[in-house]
Structure formats: structure tokens, C-alpha cells
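[User] At your convenience, examine this fold.
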Amino acid sequence: MDPVSPEKFSNLQVEVASLPRYEEAELSSLDRKYLLKLHIRTTISLLFFTAGLVAGYFFLQNNLNYFVGGFVLLLVLFGWSYYVNFQLMKRNGYALRQLDIIFRSGYLFEKTTVVPFNRVQHVSVERSFTDKLLKLSTLKIYTAGGAGSDISIPGLLPQTATSLKEEISVRIADHV
């Protein structure tokens, strides 16, 4: 390894307080139809669990105590799930900045992902069956070294997702 001369090498300390703060970015909300998608998924799960509860009632020789207890537990769990859906809609968001994109998700366990454009490999827009029915899209952003997408922003209108994809593609081309 070649020695580095002291006059060519510098490693100055960066003042942490002077760094930009991602928390100050104003996040854009997901489309309101995404809440409907979350409710549809929760309701489908509720139907499956209710069917299992009814089947269990018949297999337990019509024991009403287990059925009532299970039904109350089911109502509490799915009431909580619907509440979390509303909270996710209030808290999830994204922001496109000059050098990076931010996505915040989660309710109890909040996660904020900041991806600089110089790390982005490619961007795609995907639509599931439910997304097509509700006219929604998911923007997926892939970075170097990742097996899957590093940011997946659901609940976008198709034109918004396409616009974001094109803008990010332009910005990553500028970094190449």
C-alpha cells in the first residue's frame, strides 16, 4: 500500500448539528384509496378467521363458551387492525428532495428510509389486482447491493407513480 503524504490527506470532522435533517422534510400523503385497500385486506382476513371460528364451534360439540370468547377476541383484534389502518394512513408518507427520496412507514414501529439518488439502480411501478380495481400503484426503488426493493411506496395514483418514476430516473441519470 502506498503511503499517503500528509499534505494530500485530509479528514476534517463534520459538525453533526450542521447536517440536513430528514425529519424536517414535508411528507406527501398516500392516496385515500389506499385506506380502502387496507380495509379490504383486513376484511378478507376477518372472513377467514370467522369461518375458522364457526368451524371450530361445530367441532367442539357446540360449546358456546369457546365460541363467544373467540368471537370477542376476534372483534378486539380486528377492531385494532382497522384502527391501525387509519393510523398508517395518517403517518405514512414520502418526500422527493434534491438528492434523495424519503419514505416513512409504520405505526407502532415507525421506519424512515432515506435513499440517495446516487445509490438507486432502477425504479419500477407495479400494480396488483386490488391496485388495478382501486386505480392505485406502487413505486419500487431498487438500490445497489439489495436483493429486493429498498423502498416500496404503495397507495399512489398511477399518474403520480409514473411522474415520480420519471423524475427519479432523470435524477439517477444525472448521477451517472
Remarks:
- Strands lie at 28-29, 93-96, 100-105, 111-116, 120-126, 137-143, 151-156.
- The radius of gyration is 23 Å.
- Residues 29 and 93 are 5 Å apart (CA to CA).
